[in-house]
Design a protein that fits this description.
The chain is about 45% helix and about 15% strand. It contains 13 helices and 12 strands.
Length: about 325
Amino acid sequence: MARLGYHLSSEEHPAADLVGYARAAEEAGFSFALISDHFHPWIRHQGHSPFVWSVLGAIAQVTTTLRVGTGVTAPIMRMHPGIVAHAAATISTMMPGRFFLGVGSGELLNEHIFGDEWPCAGIRREMLSEAIDIIRDLWKGDQTSHRGRYYRVEGAQIFDIEEPPPIIMAAGGKRATKLAAEKADGLLSVVADRSALEAFDQADGAGKPRYIKLAVCYDEDETEARRLVHKQWPIDAMPGRLLTEQRLPQDFEAIAELVTEQQATDSVLCGPDPQPHIEKIEGCFDDGYDHVYVHQIGPNQKGFFGFYQQQVMPELKGLESN
């Protein structure tokens, strides 16, 4: 069944607003949401980056049906996988059956802050694989010790754990996609890619959920929407290699100076016409993604919710409501 979700953009909104947007998403009919887990925003103009686990606790108190997951947490350096396991277990008790843990191998932007050496992509995949094993072991609720290549755990036990939440893994490329199929309960694709879905299926991922994010900027004035995207979210125009290897928001700002408005908006649906949104979402479903979540760039979240509730969602075929 096709499901439509909403992106809670921690880089763009303060904690209290994110809590309100989660409730608004539920009321508008979105069935799930992913909240980004960053220490820094991508660029300083975005202006925010609250601690995601505090925000999730508040969201649990103001929603009743919305499924919520991290999009995504990197349990490899900034936070030890044991701490992530503990945090996720607690949130899962606050929204039973509604929380899922999204994981990935992270970006230097968020992981360098304690002075750790930034490993290559292959090492980060190995670290993520070991981290997932630790998290799952701790979720059994037993006393756990672990001495692996990258992590140690000594006699740790999680007491507040009920049904372990699903793990969804962000992956791009064949090696990461294969790891997601083997270790995770679902796939979050960095970009829409049928070949990635085929590789996921072939590596034991068949039947597991697949997530994809869609960036949009609803505004009555398309020109204003395009201008806002260029200023607020030039990130999607940057190659993936750049996204993982820059250290500070200032580094991304320097790269953003080279991004034109056309480049920034090439992959973002801008303006008030609902038809491109409908066609794009249904195209993702047709490609094999069963979870599409929408990132409304900028401050006009109220207008976006009304636009989707009234003009987009009623036209989507086979959409499961919350």
